[in-house]
Amino acid sequence: MPETTSGAAPGATTLPPDAALLPDGGGTRPAPDFSGWTCPAPLRDHPRVVMGHGGGGAMSAELVEHVFAPAFGGRVLSELGDAAVVLLGGARLAFSTDSFVVRPLFFPGGSIGDLAVNGTVNDLAMRGARAAYLSCGFVLEEGVETATVARVAEALGAAARAAGVEVATGDTKVVEAGHGDGVYVNTAGIGLVPEGVDLRPQRVVPGDVVIVSGAIGVHGVAIMSVRDGLEFGVEIVSDCAALGGLVEAMLAVTPDLHVLRDPTRGGLAAALNEIAAASGTGVVLQERSIPVPPAVANACAVLGLDPMQVANEGKLVAFVPREHADAVLAAMREHPLGRDAAVIGEAVEAHPGMVVARTGLGGTRVVDLPVGEQLPRIC
What we know:
Elements: E1 20-24, E2 27-31, H1 58-72, H2 75-78, E3 84-88, E4 91-100, E5 106-107, E6 110-111, H3 112-125, E7 130-141, H4 146-163, E8 166-175, E9 183-192, E10 209-212, H5 218-227, H6 244-253, E11 259-261, H7 267-279, E12 282-286, H8 294-303, E13 317-320, H9 322-334, E14 342-348, E15 355-358, E16 364-366
Parallel strand pairs: 7-8, 12-15
Antiparallel strand pairs: 1-2, 3-4, 4-9, 5-6, 7-9, 10-13, 10-14, 11-13, 12-14, 15-16
């Protein structure tokens, strides 16, 4: 990672001391040598795919907007939700797919097998659907131990049973040694959307209450701790979990929730910015109300990370009509996966498309969409 200037924001870079100066419209500009950089989020106009393009932030959005969306087209895809909702034979189906490349394959609180199930189940749940069936594709690197593959498969099967979903079809491919990273997994899922449920960011209106289901940043820091051998004085366990039951408890209070989102890559900051941009509303957060565990806060402080940009795998954020907010919050706290749910802000008319946080010192700061990814390969 290139060095940062004193006082610069985390991720900001300075130019190498031997940078050349090139003509730039009559002036000059430094020309960094990209060949030696390994930063997950270098310049956004980089001509090749970099790690930041997979981070769920601005670089990911640009890749989708300028490469995939124009190539694929289609009304359903244009919604760019966690899952697509389609009509098929008179039924409303939620349909989603996801790929998992987490490193390491096993971590405190889960594995790539657990992620493969829970990530897809949660994408469906964010549209109000309970997953019914999954497909599962394995890409295996030549030389990986069969026992490792078996552990991943067993974890995936156990997670599917726990989530009440059946793995109905699958595929396996093997790539040459050195052309993979042990095991990659792709899952796709389908589920039925109940009548009267319409969860999408375009339904958000000023006055909606923003609720998060629990402590943020846990999964990303758990992965980082085992990947880099860091010690934070206490074991941090991933929050990886299937959220279908929690969503059902919320919808039992009222089907008129406006939008749900699981803040995975890019964390809470990315999820809120995407919702604000799609709804055309502003979002105001109370920073002190956002639940950040002390271990996560300490780790982020040491490493210069923003907890709101760190990935989660078992949390959701909800925009709820104000008249239902208290009842929905109470129902969430009755569920094991929502016992630490908290109101963290509201949607407002001011600064449409922008997320701001009121700090404990009485100031206000902008919560930006992450450019790339603070911690690559976390899901």
